[in-house]
Amino acid sequence: MPWLRKKLKTAIKRQIIKHHRRAGRVMFSDTTLRDGEQMPGATLEPHEKARIAVALEELGVHSIDAGFPASSPADVEAIRLINAAVSKPVLTCLARTLKGDIDAADEALAGRITRKRGVSLFCGVSPIHRQHKHQKSTSEMLTMITDAIQYATSKFDVIAFGPEDSSRTEMDFLCQCYKEAIDAGASTIGFADTVGILTPDKTYDMLRRIQDGVPNIEKALLAIHFHNDLGLGVANNLAGIQAGAHVVQCTINGIGERAGNTALEEVALAMAMNPDEFGAPDTLDLSKLGPLCKLVAELTGVPIPVNKPLAGANVFATEAGVHQDGLLKNPDTYLPYRPELVGGDPIRLVLGRHSGRRAVASRLAELGATVSDEQALAVLERIKRLPKGSEVTDAWLVEQARN
């Protein structure tokens, strides 16, 4: 009996949603391979996407935004490779509120078990999107949304509805969109700060108003997606978590359009360092973060800034003598966390004009040259007289110690 099967599927889906809501655990959804790749110059080949997907699975993300199959044959090929390469995460495909897009998502994820495949439907709902992009009234938008979701239920159990430009949409209409989407069959509703304009206080306020204003919200999960145009992506995500979001969608290294998306690794680390405020990201293996950041930088060709949190070359390096002395005595004196927590590079004491004699002596000892304090101080004085931009190589350092 088709009606009975449908009723049973709905009941099971509701129980799964209820379980996730009660668990209180934040789930990470990665969109590096879709939204991140939209960054100019960050194009990835299908096999490269599959390689990153495997690393994301090892990290422990709950879901991967695998691509936009209606956009290009390359996306379809990548999704199929990812589908074959990973088994644990839920794979979702992006789709407009069009039957053809939903069909393309269904075909791209063919063969994947039902609970591990999903579709993410999007359309712009703010006044500027309704008027200039869709040229539709609010009632026409609601019909378009519900028709697409109802059609998607014939092919997917996992259906996310993400209204573009949520942060610039009238609250009453936004809540109405969510209510109708959930009634039509959406299992997740997304809040998108598409142009990255929010602050943490406004983020918290809007998400609380959504939870108060959507009467059937207990039947869906709440996901958040922030861009970083004001440099507040991480802060806004953390405010969203405090406001009750169940899913955070980010990218590795924060890559994405304009100023990028929110960096997944930074959100995870902030949670790990402040579990009393945000809960611990205990579904993730944080030691995989550093290598994953490097892999994404390597394959996209987008370099990691030297002062980038967690993955930048300077995060575990210092040239300042006072800091070097402290790190030699106990790394925790000048580090918020140890490199091994995130799979980072070892602590590096850079020798230069601001260094101290203890750092010089320590490096020489590593090279097999034991020196007195006076000798280390003499070498340090020579280092400080080097022209700007000079590199203190190991060979040069040992030679100076012998003189």
Describe this structure as you would to a colleague.
The protein has 16 helices and ten strands. The strands form two sheets. Strands 1-2-3-4-5-6-7-8 form an eight-stranded parallel barrel, surrounded by eight helices. Strands 9-10 form a two-stranded parallel sheet. The model has no long low-confidence stretch (mean pLDDT 94). Helix 7 (171-184) packs across helix 8 (200-213) and helix 14 (357-366) crosses helix 15. It has two domains: 2-300, Aldolase class I (TIM Barrel); 317-402, no CATH class. The chain has 403 residues and is an alpha/beta fold. Its EC number is 2.3.3.13. One of its GO terms (biological process) is L-leucine biosynthetic process. Pfam families: HCS_D2, HMGL-like.
SSE layout and pairing:
Blueprint lengths: L1 H22 L3 E4 L15 H14 L3 E5 L5 H13 L4 E7 L2 H10 L8 E8 L2 H8 L3 H15 L5 E7 L6 H14 L3 E6 L6 H14 L7 E6 L6 H10 L4 E4 L13 H10 L1 H4 L10 H12 L16 E2 L2 H9 L18 E2 L7 H10 L6 H12 L9 H9 L1
Parallel strand pairs: 1-2, 1-8, 2-3, 3-4, 4-5, 5-6, 6-7, 7-8, 9-10
